[in-house]
Write a structure and sequence with these properties.
Blueprint: H1 10-23, H2 30-40, H3 47-58, H4 65-88, E1 92-93, E2 96-97, H5 99-103, H6 105-126, H7 129-152, H8 160-185, H9 190-214, H10 220-223, H11 229-232, H12 238-246, H13 249-261, H14 267-276, H15 279-297, H16 305-319
Antiparallel strand pairs: 1-2
Helix pairs in contact: 1-3, 1-4, 2-6, 3-4, 3-8, 3-16, 4-6, 4-8, 7-8, 8-9, 9-15, 9-16, 12-13, 12-15, 15-16
Cofactor: Mg(2+)
Keywords: Magnesium, Metal-binding, Transferase
InterPro entries: Isoprenoid_synthase_dom_sf (IPR008949), Polyprenyl_synt (IPR000092), Polyprenyl_synt_CS (IPR033749)
Length: 322
């Protein structure tokens, strides 16, 4: 079951978001439109825009601007994907060739810029300054998170605290912005707004940790990306950080060398070390703890089908296989 199918009331709203996104990809430059459609329609679950819809509904919103706001969040997310794939030299995304693999780096970066700009155009139409403040702050932090990740590349001394700071910036921040702005749109009380903000933050952290775990579990068909991509890029993600902490001197040395040089020459033995040291279970436990925090944050919201769906979504985020 796809996340948006958890709640039948959300289904038509979710479809309205999809239609709005497609209708707002138009451009007088054909290549912009072609790449925009390619990346937006390439099979993502659209969890972030779904969170906007759920948060707004859970906070009692009755208008229609949440559809526009959900599209804003998805455009920003898509822009970051285009930029990330160029930075990481990725060739596969959601089981398809990346835009940079098909059209090159320069068009991918520039279309990412176009999508960022389109997102801010739509925000102006929503005309709620507090939402613009949250999202402009979020995009700044996301950019900083990406730069931090770049600085940590091929650094085996990356700490768990540094790793968490990176994923808070590059991933969780947009989840947080999605739920917080949904609450702002609904003119929710401050306590509910803060609860929804924290829900987004914690589910975003959990989502990214599970993503990093799957890099040492899944096949390319399940993940929609190349297995071992993180190791190939020299990323010291949570499973590797824990394995270096808990492994033998020999295991630690092998992982450190692999992170420094990048590539996949040592992928198989490192996958074995990650499992042998309990690093998969450790990372999963951290993710489950974040999902529990997300669910706990919702206590202040009144009971509704939307709140229940958000609880289900937190569970789904840590139990997914792709």
């Amino acid at each position: 079951m796809l996340p948006h199918q958890l709640n039948p009331v959300i289904e038509p709203q979710f479809e309205a978001v999809n239609n709005y996104i497609i209708n707002h990809l138009h451009s007088g430059v054909p290549l912009v439109e072609k790449i925009g459609h390619y990346i937006v329609e390439s099979g993502g679950k659209r969890i972030r825009p779904l969170l906007v819809l759920l948060a707004a509904n859970a906070a009692g919103y009755k208008g229609e601007h949440h559809v526009q706001l959900a599209a804003v969040i998805e455009f920003i997310h898509t822009a970051t994907l285009l930029h990330d794939d160029v930075v990481d030299n990725s060739e596969l995304r959601r089981g398809n060739d990346t835009a940079n693999a098909k059209w090159g780096n320069a068009p991918s970066v520039l279309v990412g810029d176009f999508l960022y700009s389109r997102a801010f155009q739509i925000m102006v139409e929503i005309n709620k300054m507090e939402i613009m403040k949250v999202i402009s702050n979020a995009t700044t932090i996301i950019a900083e998170g990406e730069v931090m990740q770049l600085l940590n590349a091929r650094n085996p001394d990356t700490t768990e605290a540094s790793y968490m700071q990176v994923i808070l910036g590059k991933t969780a921040m947009l989840f947080e912005a999605a739920t917080e702005t949904g609450a702002i749109l609904a003119d929710a009380e401050q306590e509910q707004q803060e609860a929804l903000r924290l829900y987004g933050r914690h589910i975003g952290i959990a989502f990214q940790i599970i993503d990093d775990v799957m890099d040492y579990l899944s096949s390319a068909e399940e993940m929609g990306k190349n297995v071992g991509d993180d190791l190939a890029e020299g990323k010291a993600t949570l499973p590797l950080i824990h394995a270096m902490r808990e492994g033998s001197d020999e295991q630690r040395t092998l992982i450190r060398q692999a992170i420094r040089k990048g590539g996949l020459d040592d992928l198989q033995p490192i996958m074995e070390i990650v499992h042998a040291t309990g690093s998969i279970d450790y990372a999963r436990d951290i993710a489950y703890g974040e999902a529990d925090k997300a669910i706990k944050a919702l206590d202040v919201l009144p009971d509704s089908s939307f709140k229940q769906t958000m609880i289900q979504l937190a569970d789904l985020a840590v139990k997914r296989s792709s």
